[in-house]
Design goal:
Blueprint: E1 2-6, H1 13-22, E2 27-32, E3 48-50, H2 53-57, E4 62-65, H3 75-87, E5 91-94, H4 100-109, E6 117-119, E7 139-145, H5 153-165, E8 170-174, E9 184-185, H6 197-215, E10 219-227, H7 241-249, E11 254-259, H8 269-280, E12 286-289, E13 292-294, H9 296-302, E14 307-309, H10 312-325, E15 330-333, H11 337-346, H12 353-356
Parallel strand pairs: 1-2, 1-4, 2-3, 4-5, 5-6, 7-10, 7-11, 8-9, 8-10, 11-12, 12-15
Antiparallel strand pairs: 13-14
Length: 360
C-alpha cells in the first residue's frame, strides 16, 4: 500500500527510512513537510518529499500522520489533513495524540470504521498498584543522549536493524513514531502522573517486563527519551531526573551514548563514565559523536540547550582523540554506518552470548 507521511519532520526521518525493511504492508512513496522546512530535506531513498499535500495525496492509498514535539502549533492543520484524506477515500494511520473531540469527529466521518482510520496515538494506560520489582531476564541495551536536542533515532534504528538481521528476537521501546517499524511505545506519561517516584520506577519496570514476556525477547533495545546530565544549574535540562527514574527500572547490560563533539575533553571521559556508574548503575560502553557542537551563549541566553553544526571531518578528528585515550570504550561517529556494525560485531558485545542459545 503506497503511503504519504505528514507532517514530515526530523523526528520521523529515521523511522521512515526503515519502514520498507520491517513492514510489508506499507510503502512510503511521498512525504509532505511545511514549506518553511523544505530546504532541510532532500528526497530520502525512494521517498519523494514535497510541500503540496493534496497533490501528493493523489498518488497514495494511505496517509500516515506522524508525531512531533510541537504538534500543538500545527494541530488544527493536522486535523484538516486527516479529514481531507478520509473524504478522499484514503486510509489514515495516526501516531500523533489527538484530543477526544477531534477523535469523535473523525470517527463519525468514518462511521467508526477502524480500517479507514487507525489510531495509535494513545499512551499506555497508567495503572498504579502494588507491583513487585523484577530484573529483566533478557539482554537490555540502552540508547541515550548526553543532553536534550541530540537525535538518537538514527542510532536506535541502526542497532535495531542490525540485531534483527543477526537473528535475535529484539524488541524496541521508543517514541510514538517508532511504532512505524513495529516497536513498542514508551509510557512517557508516567513522568507527569501523580505517582510517587517509587511507583514510577515499579510501573516502568513492570511495563517493560510484560513486553519482555509477551514477545519472548532476546534483547530489549530501549531509547532513553531525555538527557543524561544537566547542562548548568540555571539550564538544568530536567536535571536528568527522568533518565534516573528509567535507569532504576532497568538492568542495562550495554549503553550507547550519543553526544556533541565539545561536551567534554578526552581526558574527562573517565569522570563522566564514573558518574554514570554511580548514578545510573551502568557504564558507558560506546559513544557516538554527532556533527554538532554546543552553542553555549545561545543556550544560556534562551535557557534551552542550543547546538550548531560542525563538519564531519571535525567530528572524526574529535572521535580519534577520544579513542586514543580510552581503550575500553568504543568511540564512533553517528553518521558513519560502519560504526554500527562495529558496535554489534567487531566490538563484540560479550553479554549477547547469553541470548545466543535462543537462536541456535
Amino acid at each position: 500500500m503506497n503511503c504519504l507521511i505528514y507532517p514530515f519532520t526530523t523526528e520521523c526521518i529515521a523511522f521512515a527510512e526503515y519502514v520498507q525493511e520491517f513492514r510489508n504492508d506499507l510503502n512510503i512513496v511521498k512525504a509532505v513537510c511545511l514549506p518553511i522546512f523544505r530546504t532541510r530535506f532532500d528526497n530520502i531513498g525512494s521517498i519523494d518529499v514535497g510541500t503540496d499535500f493534496e497533490t501528493s495525496l493523489k498518488d497514495v492509498e494511505c496517509v500516515i500522520i506522524c508525531d512531533f514535539n510541537h504538534i500543538n502549533a500545527l494541530y488544527n492543520n493536522v486535523i484538516d489533513k486527516i479529514i481531507i484524506a478520509i473524504e478522499s477515500g484514503k486510509k489514515v494511520i495516526c501516531y500523533a495524540e489527538l484530543y477526544n473531540d477531534e477523535l469523535k469527529k473523525i470517527r463519525s466521518i468514518t462511521k467508526n470504521d477502524n480500517d479507514a482510520f487507525v489510531y495509535l496515538g494513545n499512551e499506555p494506560e497508567i495503572m498504579i498498584s502494588d507491583i513487585l520489582y523484577e530484573k529483566q531476564e533478557c539482554v537490555v541495551i540502552g540508547v541515550g543522549k548526553l543532553m536534550s536536542g541530540i537525535d538518537t533515532d538514527k542510532c536506535f534504528c541502526n542497532l535495531y536493524s542490525r540485531f534483527k538481521k543477526m537473528g535475535y528476537n529484539v524488541v524496541g521501546i521508543s517514541n510514538r513514531n517508532s511504532q512505524l517499524i513495529g516497536c513498542s511505545l514508551f509510557p512517557d506519561e508516567i513522568y507527569t502522573s501523580y505517582a510517587t517516584d517509587d511507583q514510577k520506577v515499579t510501573f516502568i519496570n513492570d511495563y517493560i517486563n510484560k513486553i519482555q514476556t509477551k514477545y519472548c525477547a532476546d534483547i530489549i533495545l530501549i531509547q532513553f527519551p531525555y538527557g543524561m546530565v544537566k547542562f548548568t544549574d540555571e539550564v538544568g535540562d530536567g536535571y536528568a531526573i527522568r533518565s534516573y527514574i528509567l535507569s532504576q527500572a532497568l538492568s542495562v547490560d550495554y549503553f550507547v551514548l550519543n553526544m556533541p563533539v565539545d561536551a567534554i575533553d578526552p581526558g574527562s571521559f573517565d569522570e563522566l563514565n564514573n558518574q554514570f556508574i554511580y548514578k545510573f548503575d551502568f557504564s558507558i560502553d560506546a559513544v557516538l559523536f554527532v556533527n554538532s557542537a554546543l552553542n553555549v551563549i545561545d543556550s544560556l541566553e534562551h535557557f534551552k540547550i542550543q547546538y550548531q553544526d560542525v563538519p564531519e571531518e571535525y567530528t572524526e578528528k574529535i572521535c580519534c582523540s577520544f579513542d586514543e585515550l580510552n581503550e575500553d570504550v568504543f568511540f564512533g561517529v553517528s553518521e558513519r554506518n560502519d560504526d554500527y556494525d562495529k558496535i554489534v560485531t567487531i566490538n563484540n558485545i560479550e553479554f549477547l552470548k547469553i541470548s545466543q542459545q535462543s537462536i541456535v
